[in-house]
Write a structure and sequence with these properties.
Elements (H helix, E strand, L loop, with lengths): L10 E4 L7 H6 L4 E5 L4 H4 L2 H11 L3 E5 L8 H14 L3 E6 L1 H13 L7 H5 L10 E5 L11 E6 L4 E6 L7 E4 L9 H19 L7 H23 L4 H15 L13 H12 L3 H16 L5 H12 L7 H18 L16 H9 L12 H10 L2
Parallel strand pairs: 1-8, 2-3, 2-4, 4-5, 5-8
Antiparallel strand pairs: 6-7
Helix pairs in contact: 4-5, 7-8, 7-9, 7-11, 8-9, 8-12, 10-11, 10-14, 11-13, 11-15, 12-13, 14-15
């Protein structure tokens, strides 16, 4: 294990009805907040009204930033920063999933940054200060409700970049699994793939001496395999929704990579898909992940894939390591397909015309430090495998 520092300051209120604690938590830190949300589902499912009631009860004023995109755009962030500055707002409340929360983080950090908010992502700057961030989660997927990372898109340059900093941890997150009941099956499936991908990125590391972290990762993956299909089949299954929601937070809150840091592979490749084609993040991950697994399977990595097959999929550990590894990878593909997710880029109407440029951009993000180092040519090959 490598050295690490652990500090996760987010207060999490988990469970049905926990939004009753939102107003008091915000009032202790802010008096005027920007309420950030997406296409309006939070107004249809009652989340907005419940949050507004809490704000009113505690005398908190607010302004609204609606219409956050599934891949949040820097133009929306700029508008949020403008509203906060012009109206003297001192907090940001996100109602929604990971995209809304990422936008809220960028607004909160951009408020104190003198330049263009895109600099935070495009130039990989680390923000030093941010407005207090509050979240009410409505989709289990990105884990942004309990981490310090935000991902923002710039359609003008076909870029999708992330930034992070300790000031970007949400101060308080409300996690009520019942708020995910109304999600379409396609979003539940994409969210499950996203949770699993976060876990894979931490699990497949050259450092294999962190038994606790690896065991936690395997438990999260088994939980996704068990509860993802249940949540799709029975949307109001509280047990399934609750487990998926808690899986999402733990997949990326930092615990799985403590002592075993590694640069991520599939996320960087998928960010290029989203930047060029506006692909739903979890869908892109589901397509790319099994092909990345096949591509990096070799004599050095087969033992890790074999362990994955035995511990997550219950395959016979007595089988030869390569055979077990290949079976585990096929299980991964079959599972994503069983959730209704596409298996190829061609199903999304995506061809190879931008693959070299996408690979070049992805390659600039630490692929020398990934589980298996990849060249731009390797990345193109994985894209080609995914057609």
């Amino acid at each position: 294990m490598k050295n690490f520092t652990c500090a996760i300051p987010t207060v999490v209120h988990f469970g049905q009805g926990q939004i009753q604690k939102l107003g008091g938590e915000i009032a202790a830190r802010s008096r005027k907040v920007l309420v950030v949300y997406g296409g309006g589902s939070v107004k249809r499912n009652g989340v907005f009204d419940a949050a507004a009631a809490q704000l009113n009860e505690h005398g908190i004023q607010w302004a609204e930033l609606p219409g956050v995109e599934p891949n949040p755009r820097v133009a929306t962030v700029r508008e949020g920063v403008r509203l906060c500055r012009e109206q003297g707002l001192d907090g940001v409340l996100a109602l929604g999933g990971g995209s809304v929360i990422d936008c809220a983080k960028a607004v909160a950090a951009g408020f104190y940054y003198d330049g263009d908010p895109w600099d935070l992502s495009g130039k990989k700057l680390t923000p030093e200060r941010a407005l207090p961030i509050f979240t009410v989660l409505t989709m289990a997927a990105t884990g942004s409700e309990m981490d310090d990372i935000a991902v923002i898109s710039n359609p003008e340059t076909n870029e999708k970049e992330s930034f992070s900093g300790p000031c970007c941890y949400p101060a308080v997150s409300i996690l009520d699994p019942t708020y995910t009941y109304s999600l379409p099956a396609s979003q539940t499936a994409a969210g499950t793939a996203d949770i699993m991908s976060h876990t894979f990125e931490n699990y497949f590391s050259p450092i294999e001496t962190s038994y606790l972290a690896d065991s936690l990762a395997e438990a999260i993956l088994r939980s996704c395999v068990k509860y993802g299909p249940k949540a799709i089949e029975t949307p109001n299954d509280y047990e399934a929704r609750a487990n998926l929601m808690w899986n999402a937070a733990w997949a990326i809150n930092g615990f799985l990579n403590m002592g075993k840091p590694v640069a991520w592979s599939v996320h960087r490749m998928e960010h290029e898909l989203s930047a060029f084609y506006d692909v739903t993040h979890g869908v892109g991950l589901a397509i790319l992940t099994p092909n990345w697994m096949r591509y990096v399977l070799n004599e050095r990595t087969e033992a890790r894939f074999a362990r994955y097959g035995a511990e997550v999929w219950g395959l016979d550990p007595a089988r030869p390591a390569r055979e077990l590894a290949e079976a585990a990878i096929q299980k991964t593909r079959d599972f994503f397909v069983s959730l209704g997710l596409p298996a190829s880029l061609s199903e999304l109407g995506i061809g190879p015309e931008y693959f070299p440029e996408m690979a070049r951009k992805a390659r600039n993000s630490g692929f020398d430090r990934t589980f298996v180092p990849l060249s731009a040519e390797d990345i193109v090959n994985i894209y080609q495998m995914s057609l």
